# Entry
Amino acid sequence: MNKILCDSHCHLNDPAFADIYDGVLRETEESAVGLVVNIGFDLENSALAVRQAAETDWIYATVAIHPTECYGYGPEALDEIRRLAASPKVVAIGEIGLDYHYDDTDKEKQEYWYRAQIRLAVELGMPICIHDRDAHDDCLRILKEEGVLRAGKEPRIPVLFHCFSGSPEFARQLVKLGVYISAAGPATYKNSKKVPEVVKEVPDDRLLIETDAPFLTPAPFRGQFPNTPKMVEYTCRKIAELKGLSYEETAALTYANAKRFYRIP
Ligand code: NI
# Structure
């Protein structure tokens, strides 16, 4: 199998894979996926992502505390993220951000962790993966306030909005500031009106694709759980159709973009 696809954001460290992990590795090895970035979302599974990356050459890791997972942590947890970030195959701080979707949202606590981890990434000179759910304006405002995104200049560190869910106008704004944008399974859903428009806004050299597995399984397998890295093929096919490119061209450019963003050799 030609290894032409990169799943730029998934969670092989999620408990959903605990009992089937070896099978998912084998299945991915037999697929067209040649590179997987395994994204941390709390201390424990950031450490697991690092271990999984150390064991398998085509897996890289990121480490962070996700906005909906931040409530139980005190400031000292940042030292643990800093320590994990020093592991050889950790390529970014992520996923970090803001998630205003749930009723129990503590915006202040989320903002504390978002800013703290942005500052850590700047200190370490590492890329950041942003999780933005119903918080577009605040996510962007804070990146500007922290001096990461600057009008007319390159971002201070590479910035990616993963599983992008904003408007085409928001995408245009981000692209102008040098941000990368990633499309996940929802790009393939029939009722997703915005994502196809967003994809057309994003230049070929700024677009990544991902599964966000175990969640967001793409059509025609929508609803199946868990989603797995090989399913990134269906998002790639949809993006190709939306961009008027071939599947192979789209695979090649999104693979190259992921390697450039994460600085993977
Ligand atoms: Ni994710």
Observations:
- The chain is about 40% helix and 15% strand.
- Residues 5-262 form a domain with the TIM Barrel fold (CATH 3.20.20.140).
- The first strand starts at residue 5 and ends at 10.
- The radius of gyration is 17 Å.
